[in-house]
Amino acid sequence: MPEKVSDQETQSQGKKRKQNLQSPRPSQGFSQRSITDFFGDSTLGLDVPTSRPSSPKRSRKNSEQPELPKDMSTPLNEQAWRRISENRVADLNGLPPHPRDPPNPNTNIVATKPPRPAPFQPHAGAPRKLHIKNLRKPSKIDPDVYFNQTWGSLEAALAAIFGSRKISASLEELYRGTENICRADRAGELYIRLKACCATYVGDYLKDSIIACNSWKDDAVKCVVSAWEKWNAQLGMIRSVFLYLDRSYLLNNANPSLQPVEPTGLELFRHHIILAQEIETKFMDGIMALFERDRQQCSIDASLLTRAVRMVDSLDLYETNFEPRFLAMSREYYDRLGILGATSNSLAEYLDECSQQLHKEALRCERYRLDPPTKRSMGLILEEGLLKNQLLILTDQGSIEDLLQKQDHKSLATLYSLLDRIGEPSSYLRLAWEKHILTVGRSIIEDESRENEMVQRLLELKDSLDSFVRVPFKGDDTLAYALRESFGTFLNARTKDRSEMVNSKPAEMIAKYVDALLRGGAKGTSTGTPGDEDARLAHSLEQVLDLFRFIQGKDVFEAFYKRDLARRLLMDRSASRDAERSMITKLKTECGSGFTQNLESMFKDIEISREAISHFKTTRNRAGNSPNVDLNVLVLSQSAWPTYDEVPVVIPLEMAQYLESYRNVYCEKHSGRKLMWRHALSHCVLRARFAPNVNKELVLSALQAVVLLLFNDAEFGTYLSYQQIKGGTGLDDKQLIRTLQSLACAKYRVLQKETKGKDILPTDNFCVNRHFSAPKFRIKINQIQLKETKKEKEDTFERVAQDRQYETQAAIIRIMKSRKKLRHNDLIQMTIDQTKNRGKLDVPEIKKQIERLIDKDYMERLPGGETWYQYVA
Amino acid sequence: MKVRIRKWNAVASWRWDVPEDDVCGICRVQFDGTCPNCRFPGDDCPLLVGKCGHSFHLHCVNDWIQTESSRGLCPMCRQKFEFVAE
């Protein structure tokens, strides 16, 4: 077998040598193998005629012996050496042998001259002469003939390529032919011929075939693209054949008219086909039509479009011919779409549509591989057409309010991000946003029928508004600020009926809400696990405090809060002392220590009283004469607590004595003080026996207790008249009626009125209700409060107004005292600044106070045009 | 019917044991109010009752006694000012 292989080798090698001899220089760069591989690897889909009679054998041999170049060289050398040994002349430089120096076949060492002595003769003998002879025969073929001959076969090959036929000649020969022509310095000529040949093909045949295509009228894009792809494949083949021309001559040529094969082919295609009038318009229009249909969601051949775009791109026509048209077309399309969509849909639908279009167009740019600059321009076009031109509709206040009303977070988020593309979204949204807040807020505040739920509803509103800012509006600062502004505005808006003061309803309701929370009766917090009650309470308080921050009439809040706190402390109704304290701390950080000073001293009073009573009890127990009553006394410092009316009442003697002893102990300890009993605020626990087996514990106010104690000695069934009771208790009519009502006409009827009816008349008689029964042992009898609260509320307002006047006057005086002389406007401004922690003042009110102070000679007006005030010491 | 008091939570309020509407001789403010430097009446701004029978806000009379010209005398009656110990 090896014999056979070498035989083949020699055979093929011989062929190779023959070829080598035809070329001016031995080939070095391109091995046979690489060339065949190049052709063989062609994946262009053409019928590439790589097969030649010898090629199957060769390719098999190649696969058997991959290191072909080395094997090739071996027989060559052997032959050369054989020749040398035959001729006795080494052909070293490949030059033709000298004609005067013919080879001597007989002797290998020729003595041409008689021997003569040589100075140095390491090997004795005659000097030898080395003849070098070129064995290569000069080419016998005339270059022109060769050129024409080769071109003939090349032309035939080109025609075959153009006609998608098999190339009859061997590709390798064609390649060699090209190479040889190039080596013979005729590359330029070859190129011109090649170009002309291609131009004829592209300009006439290919173009005609496109126009003659069946679907040319309907589907120009497809025709052009397929022609393009065909041409591209053919071009690849051509380039392979003319590779040597391409690489050696055209590639490094500085002459701009000489371009490598591929660009030349593209240029031809561009020039003859795409830029041809009749094709260009139709083709581009076709592409635009495809895009438009794609936008209208008709099914199109997406790959065709991609290919078309890629073709335009590789023909370098993207920026010049395609992009401007595409952008213009898109602009027109989206302008139209914007007008259509904005007018015919609701805002929410339109927003949805816009965001979808933006998204889709971005995807489209990706899918069809449009350039990034085109993508950017498309973004601008969409923004312009869909958003900027329709800005009036997008930012229509009514529609936006509608979305807010519906809590349509999704649409609002879309709206916000769309507006974000074309400018500052808050500037468009702000007006509608504020208006919405004001409308909803006012409706809550002015809804008197649901007054009790006001705070709860405000909290819910705040929560939902906050979530708007957080999610759809991405925490926009301006809108968050607008939210706070508007919230404050409607919370502090004046109502018509109470022109005297800033609307204090919210402040009052917030105070009440806090009261409810701190008494532990919070309805809103009933959800959730009962375990973290404290945390929930703290959370609720924090929320309310949020509302409180908006309130300008903080003094109104303080007044109500103080009244409620007093009630909680006196009645011991507080759910949690810690919660109370934390609330005070929060208020303190919010409004300063001056605001909570009174509240804190209320707590202090309670503490001191607790110590005092335990001190009192220990001393009394040592004395050993205490009645069997658990006494507890709270001593209030008058200024810190709300003012209470003094209620005259006759306390049972035993109790009065006991209290008196406490008073003595207290006054001993704190000299210079006077203690006054506030029996209307006291409460006590009574053990009552209605029947031999009916024992009850009654929790009631001191006034109620005093009334009940009158019946202590009376027999069952004995009636005490109203007048008798009045005399016995010393209560005035108002208090007595209230007390008797609570005892005889309320839920638990401890007393029985002789005549039926809800009202107490001065002629009524009362006796103990003998049939009194209640399921529980401990019974709490509430005082009738309803009628009182109305008046109490008025009182509170009155007091707040009065306090405000004093506060204002004090502020004015403080300012004047430090400044001595001040302009009117400055004084007003400084007064407002000084008092804003407690409540916002109006200018007219301040003016009124200034007048009053001038009347009282605290300050005076200075004569002159501008109003100056001077402090009078 | 028999009713017995088990527990009595009394409430009282205190004020300075001076005639109502009486004013401090130094600052001319009611005793129930504060001296000019204080903001909250009560424990924080107590009264000082002199043996001579004149009472003042503690802060007011303190300031007075510390001035040299006072020579420790009551500003009302020029007797030596001594306060009643609590």
Automatic annotation (TrEMBL), chain A:
GO molecular function: ubiquitin protein ligase binding
Biological processes per GO annotation: ubiquitin-dependent protein catabolic process
CC annotations in GO: cullin-RING ubiquitin ligase complex
Composition-biased stretches (Basic and acidic residues): 61-70
Superkingdom, taxonomy of origin: Eukaryota
InterPro entries, alphabetized: Cullin, Cullin-like_AB, Cullin_CS, Cullin_homology, Cullin_homology_sf, Cullin_N, Cullin_neddylation_domain, Cullin_repeat-like_dom_sf
Domain Cullin family profile per the UniProt entry, residue ranges: 505-744
Protein keywords: Isopeptide bond, Ubl conjugation
Record flagged with keyword Ubl conjugation: yes
A Pfam entry, by short name: Cullin
Compositionally biased intervals (Polar residues): 20-35
Chain positions covered by the region annotation Disordered: 1-76, 90-134
Family stated for the protein in its record: Belongs to the cullin family.
Record's protein name: (Perigord truffle) hypothetical protein
From TrEMBL, chain B:
Keyword Zinc: yes
PROSITE patterns in the record: ZF_RING_2
The protein's annotated pathway: Protein modification; protein ubiquitination
Cellular component annotations (GO), alphabetically ordered: anaphase-promoting complex
Keywords: Cell cycle, Cell division, Metal-binding, Mitosis, Nucleus, Ubl conjugation pathway, Zinc, Zinc-finger
Iron recorded as keyword: no
GO annotation, biological process: anaphase-promoting complex-dependent catabolic process; cell division; protein ubiquitination
Protein name as it appears in the record: Anaphase-promoting complex subunit 11
Organism of derivation: Tuber melanosporum (strain Mel28)
Residue ranges constituting the RING-type domain according to the UniProt record: 35-78
